[in-house]
Each structure stands twice: as structure tokens, then as C-alpha cells.
Design brief:
α1 crosses α5 and α5 crosses α6. Helix content is 46%, strand content 17%. The chain is α/β, with parallel strands linked by helices. The protein folds into 2 domains: 197 residues, 3-Layer(aba) Sandwich (Rossmann fold); 102 residues, Rossmann fold (3-Layer(aba) Sandwich), CATH 3.40.50. It has 11 helices and 10 strands. The strands form 2 sheets. It has a 6-stranded mixed beta sheet with strand order 1-2-10-7-8-9. A 4-stranded parallel beta sheet has the order 5-4-3-6, with helices on both faces.
């Protein structure tokens, strides 16, 4: 069984006018498994799985992972076994992990420094057992994940064209890198100039930005071949802010909690402390610190609604 993966442009809605006109693109409204950027990516990965002869899906992620929830859901819908390898360090019970269990995914947790080796061992074991596993890198990393957000960027361009609203800034949570990379690649391919600004939810520079840069280069090489002449443009357009990561991945604080509460009360929009709440707070601080006023700003809500319920339960 496979779902209809037709074209689903997600809505862009206006939240407020002051001090800037703030809009949000609701990726959480992709109509599958609570939506989000991981659903947009997984739809493309499973299109490839459906075209192949794969009989097992293997991926990586923590108990907080929206990616693992969506992948487990899509695998279950096809009656394909799913194996998730996760770090012991972030393996608490969450609504996402409860759903992974409900979808029948097998979850193995190991110390984070053993994850890579464990993935290789499990893929090797499955191959020796006569299986043909499809491995999805954590967070949907790779050119397929990047392409999903080139597509998203093109939806944003279409919105601007249809409404005659020009965004000055685009903010979002930047994690494993392909959401960020896809937006920048889309901008480079279309020659446009919004200030695409990723708010890191965990990684610090230079590593965090380097991961995004490598994804951008990898995708553009596939599209254009030699990209030597684009390097200065790639550097200029890749803005990865690591000042707002708080206490690290999956860790909240009172400031983030207050933003989550405020957004739900004012806009009826759920955020979470791992991804979107942290990014929304980072965006607010960046706007205040840089005295940005009177601009059109787009925030991309990358999903994670189950994590919102973890937050309010706490």
C-alpha cells in the first residue's frame, strides 16, 4: 500500500504586522503523519523505495526524531519492516517514540559513538539474511532530502509571484542540513535574493555550517556539474546562526517554553522545544539584536507537533 504523493503546496499565513510583517509557511500541514519537513523528504525517499525491490528500511535518529516517526509510519503502511538505530543519550520516551513502537519499528539504542558501526553491522546482517534494505540517513540527509526543499523554495517563489509579497528574510530550524541546503540551492538556481537564515538547533560552527555547505555543493554538482564559479555565491548565501542553540539538542529552557506558550495563545500555532520553538525564539532575538523593522519575514514551520505535546506534558 502506498499513499498518493501528489503535489501538496503548504499554506503561507500571516501572523502579525509589527514590528515586521511576519508570515509562516506551515509545513506541519503536509497531510501525512503530522507533516513537517521530514514528511516532505520521506515522500521522496519512499517514491524511490516504491520503484525498487526493497524489503527493509533502516534509518537513524533519537526518540525525539520526527524523521524516524514519519519513516516508521510510511514503512508500516507498506508492510515493510523498519529498523531505527538511535543514541542511548537521547532515548527517553516521547510521543514520537510511542508512535514508532505503534508502527512496529524495531528500535536499537547504542552509545552515540557506536552508531555508525552499528548501522554498518545491521545492514550487513540484513544482506546476509537475503534482505535488500534501503538505508535513509538520519534526518533525510542527502540529495533527495535537499531536493525536497528546493521544491519547497519553489512553492515560496510561486506564493511571492501570486501575491506580489516579497520576503526579505526566511528563517527556519537548521538541523542535519538538507532543509537549509535545499532552500539555498533553490535560491541559487533561481537567482533570487531573500536572506535565507538558518537557526541552528544543536550544532555549532564551523561544523554546523560546513555540513550545510557540503550538502549544497553535492546537490549543485548533480544539477550543474562544475560549480567552481559558484563557490563565492554559496558562501555568501549560507547563513547558519549558532548563537541560539540553548543547552543543546532536545533541551529546552524557560525562554523557549514562553515562546511556545505565546505562539499557541496568540496564533493557535504549536511549536516545540527541540526544533521550531528554539528557531522561532532565535529568529525573534536576531530581529531585535539587528534592529530589523518594516520587513516581510517568513518563518518556515518545519513540523514536530507530537513534540509540542511532550512539552506541555512537562
Amino acid at each position: 500500500m502506498s499513499m498518493d504523493t501528489g503535489f501538496y503546496p503548504t499554506p503561507i499565513v500571516k501572523l502579525c504586522d509589527e514590528p515586521n510583517a511576519l508570515y509562516v509557511k506551515r509545513e506541519d500541514m503536509i497531510p501525512y503523519s503530522f507533516g513537517g519537513n521530514k514528511a516532505r523528504k520521506a515522500i521522496l525517499f519512499f517514491e524511490e523505495i516504491d520503484r525498487g525491490v526493497y524489503d527493509y528500511v533502516v534509518t537513524y535518529g533519537s526518540s525525539h526524531s520526527n524523521h524516524c516517526r514519519v519513516v516508521a509510519n510510511m514503512a508500516a503502511a507498506r508492510n515493510i519492516p523498519c529498523l531505527i538505530i538511535g543514541p542511548e543519550e537521547v532515548s527517553d520516551v516521547t510521543y514520537n517514540s510511542i508512535m514508532m513502537d505503534m508502527f512496529g519499528a524495531k528500535i536499537i539504542t547504542v552509545p552515540v559513538d557506536q552508531v555508525s558501526r552499528t548501522i554498518d553491522e545491521k545492514l550487513d546482517e540484513l544482506g546476509k539474511d537475503g534482505k535488500n534494505p534501503y538505508f535513509i540517513t538520519g534526518g533525510g540527509h542527502g540529495n533527495i532530502g535537499t531536493r525536497a526543499y528546493v521544491n519547497c523554495y519553489e512553492e515560496i517563489l510561486e506564493y511571492q509571484k501570486n501575491t506580489n509579497i516579497k520576503f526579505d528574510y526566511i528563517f527556519f530550524a537548521s538541523g542535519t542540513g538538507t532543509t537549509h541546503a535545499g532552500l539555498v540551492c533553490g535560491q541559487i538556481l533561481h537567482g533570487t535574493d531573500e536572506k535565507i537564515t538558518g537557526i541552528s538547533i544543536a550544532r555549532k560552527n564551523p561544523r554546523g555550517r560546513d555540513v550545510v555547505l557540503n550538502s549544497i555543493r553535492e546537490y549543485l554538482r548533480e544539477e550543474k556539474g562544475d560549480i567552481t564559479e559558484l563557490e563565492s555565491v554559496i558562501q555568501e548565501k549560507t547563513v547558519f546562526l549558532d548563537e541560539y542553540t540553548g543547552d543543546g539538542y532536545g533541551r529546552d529552557n524557560s525562554e523557549i517554553d514562553e515562546v511556545i506558550k505565546d505562539c499557541m495563545i496568540r496564533f493557535g500555532m504549536p511549536l516545540d522545544s527541540t526544533y521550531t520553538g528554539k528557531a522561532f525564539l532565535g529568529m525573534k532575538k536576531y530581529i531585535e539584536e539587528n534592529k530589523i523593522n518594516g520587513k516581510n519575514i517568513l518563518f518556515i514551520h518545519t513540523g514536530g507537533t507530537p513534540l509540542y505535546f511532550d512539552d506541555i506534558k512537562k
